[in-house]
Amino acid sequence: MALPDALFYLFAFLTLLFGALVVANPFSRNPVTSAMFLVLTICAMAGLFVLLNAFFLAAVQILVYAGAVMVLFLFVIMLLDLKEEQRRKINLFGIVTGTGAVLGLGFLLTRTIWGGDLNQSANPRVIGDTKALGLELFTKGQFLLPFEIVSVLLLVAMVGVILLSKKELK
Amino acid sequence: MEPTLSPAGIAALTILLLPLAAAAVIAFCTQRDGERSANLSIGAIALSFILSLGLFFFTGDKAQEITFNWLSVGDLKVSFGLLLDPLSKLMLLVVTGVGLMIHIYSRGYLHGDRSFSRYFASLSLFTFSMLGIVLANNLFMMFVFWELVGVSSYLLIGFWFEKNSAADAAKKAFLTNRVGDFGFILGIILTWVALGSVNFAELASALDGKAFPFASLTEPLGKIAGGTHWWVVHPNVLATLVGLLLFMGAMGKSAQFPLHVWLPDAMEGPTPVSALIHAATMVAAGVFMLCRIFFILDIPGSHALEIIAWIGGFTALLAALMALQQNDIKRILAYSTLSQLGYMVMAVGLHAPGPAMFHLTTHAAFKALLFLGAGSVIYACHHEQNIWKMGGLREAMPTTWRTFQWGTLALCGVWPFAGFFSKDAILAAALEHQNIPLFVLGVFIAGLTTFYMSRLVLVAFCGNARSEEASHAHESPNVMIWPLKILAVPTLLAGAWGIDAYIGKAFPGGHQPHNEGFWQNLFSPFNHNILAAAFGLLAVVAGYQLARTLYVNAASDPLPDKIGVLAKLARDRFYFDELYEWFISVTQETLAKVADWFDRWVIAGLLVRGTHGTTELFGRALRLVQTGSLQTYAFLFAAGVVLVLAWQLLQTHAH
Amino acid sequence: MNVGLEHYLTVSAMLFCLGLLGVILRRNVLVIYMSLELMLNAANLALVAFSRFNENLTGQMMVFFVITVAAAEVAVGLALIVALYRKRQSAHVEDLTSLKL
């Protein structure tokens, strides 16, 4: 087996494993555990991005997602000082139907993917290095305006967060 | 169509409208003044009578018609028209002549009554309606006036409406009539559908001599029902059906079995009303109508006439049996009217409308005489009507006695009184038609008639007074006596005036009697059919002898002891009233119960509460979806996505 | 076996289903939110895979923007959760049912 393929299988396995552990981990019911495993999932995904020749995005994934978003998550968990989740009554009906729906979805998607006719080019050129990305973003594509708007969006988000977390003035 | 204003036409229109004008004037202007109202009413009918005489003697025998176009809707053209032929001219004389006598008589009988004006207004209205029936030239117009007569008779029978029995009797008469009218209107509609017209002249020419006129009927009826096969009925059946439906109108009006129950109860009205309505005119309207539409009943292949003959005969028998045991003088006369009507209907059924009209004419005269005489007796005995409380009136009221005796002789059919000739004509028709059972029946009923009339006369007039009032009775005032004397004349002589010859001209075909002059006419029945005359007279003699042995100087009725339960049956009118009452109450209750069930369970239950319940059920079911829990919503979202994707992807995959 | 587009897409699908499972089954609000992020990541992976195998840079552009917007969204969402926690004193989803009929 060629190295890239082996690496793919490794990273894919890791992604799925850590993803599963985010959702249902047997270690503890503490949300911090789930957050940790999410970080690991993101890192594994960054590896997959590298394999797909999207280097810039892999870096951004780790920097922004793992570095900022997950940290934010952990801040909030600490802030709220959440204890372990109390055990409440298990809704068996809900679990069964939920799992059934999700399995159905998975089955459908897999069947579609492996059903052939995905309209992909034969022997595609490998593109996606950072220089091409930068050119695409700033000059060649139509992405300059969205780029600027996204910055405004971030500003708006900031203002919103401040407003939402303000305590009532006595 | 321009109305042709010939003198005859104007006269006919005047005859018709004069009583209506009198009724209107009385109703609106002179209600408080009884005398003036009476004079108006009597004057109107007197004028009509004179004009009728003029029409009778001075116009030819051909039929004349005056029409005004009244209503035109699509194919239906209803006109208001007057038909003057021998039939209607004779009937005009009967109605206005006898009516005039009764108007004058009423002036005396109802003297001092509280509602004098109302009585005369109703009487004029009745006269107008009756004249409308006589003069009508098409079935629709006849039906309109038919109903008017019903209303007028309701007003007159229930004249003393403060008495419960009178109000009930009026209702009974009207409702029973209505049942007959239902059949009548069905018959009219069927006639119009089949033959395209309701005008008598047009109908007569359409049916003239054709063997199966209804062979073309199945076509129009088939078109109505969309041409389906089940509506194709045999022409004979259709002809019979039309005839019988039209006969139902006569059944109601002329009180034939089974709609005979109203006539005896209608005696609750004042006696002159009984004379007018139930002897001379209204009940005769049914027979008149049958003669008018005789050509419809006579269609070759139709069995209507046979059925009609037997119904008439049966009614006559039933009524005669019931009359045997009645003790109220007016009731006896009422049942005898029923019986004679049965005779007339039987005559029509024997293909002899001429003799039927002849008997109608003579019967009008002598029955009115009998009723007015009974009224005189009742008046003299201070409104006592039970014959067992009378007696000895022969010496006390000689004129009443003499005229009543003549009326009885005419009714029983004794030569040379008028009744003999008309009854003989009917019996002769039965023999000529080779209908021996009906002949025997007719003879038997003649015997019964003599029996119960002799009973009446022997008990009420002969012997000694049986009560206080009877012993103090004296002759009635002149205004009541003179009509009796005047009516006695046709009672004696009408048989030989050639009425049968005159009326025979209206019914071409069949035996045509000839008017040979007064003295020859007196003996013509013996020349024409000696058997009928002989048997008739034999029956009279037998009946009288039997009555004499039982009732001369009898203190009370000996018959119930001799024949036991049959007498009770006769006295209780064979329990027909009870039967009808039970039947109506049962149907009424069942219908009411069904309607109640339907209203309670289907409309209120299923539709109203059901809609409410279903909506509520749906609401409750759908509420369970709103759990408020985000996870439920997320799950439902995912499930929905799965379903839609499944449907889409698997579909395209299948391609 | 040569790794092709289908493999990447399968991984993406699996990850998406895992995220969905978490959203439906877990009771803690924050864990639900994290599963939501997992779903977003799965979408990103699919986009990049398509971009790579179809010679189209638009996919990577989309991912760029998705990550940015996801960051903003997480910030606002967490602020909301904090506010909610302050009101209800609980981060359990069964206590947040005031929309129930």
What is the CATH class name of chain C? Mainly Alpha
Low-confidence stretches of chain A: none
Radius of gyration of chain C, whole Å: 17 Å
- How many beta-strand elements of chain C? 0
Radius of gyration of chain A: 21 Å
Biggest β-sheet strands, sense, barrel of chain A = none
CATH architectural designation of chain C: Orthogonal Bundle
If interface size is counted as residues with C-beta under 8 Å from the partner's C-beta, which chains form the largest one? A-C, 82 and 70 residues
Q: What is the total number of structural domains of chain C? A: 1
Q: How does the helix and strand content of chain A classify structurally?
A: mainly alpha
Describe the main β-sheet of chain C briefly. Answer: none
Overall morphology of chain C = elongated
- The strand count of chain A comes to 0
Coarse shape of chain A: globular
Mean pLDDT of chain C, as a whole number?
Answer: 90
- Oligomeric state of the chains in view: heterotrimer
Q: Can you walk me through this structure?
A:
The complex is a heterotrimer of chains A (170), B (655) and C (101). Chain A has 170 residues and is an all-alpha fold. Chain A has helices at residues 3-23, 31-51, 55-80, 92-113, 130-140, 144-164. In chain A, α1 runs antiparallel to α2 (31-51) and α2 runs antiparallel to α3. Chain B is mostly helical and 655 residues long. Chain B is built from 29 helices and two strands. In chain B, strands 1-2 form a two-stranded antiparallel sheet. Chain C has 101 residues and is an all-alpha fold. Helices cover 76% and strands 0% of the residues of chain C. Chain A binds chain B through residues 94, 97-98, 101-102, 104-105, 108, 111-112, 115, and chain B through 631-632, 635, 638-639, 641-642, 645-646, 649, 653.
List descriptors.
A: mainly alpha; 6 helices; about 0% strand; B: mainly alpha; two-stranded antiparallel sheet; elongated
How do you describe this structure in short?
The complex is a heterotrimer of chains A (170), B (655) and C (101). Chain B is an all-alpha fold.
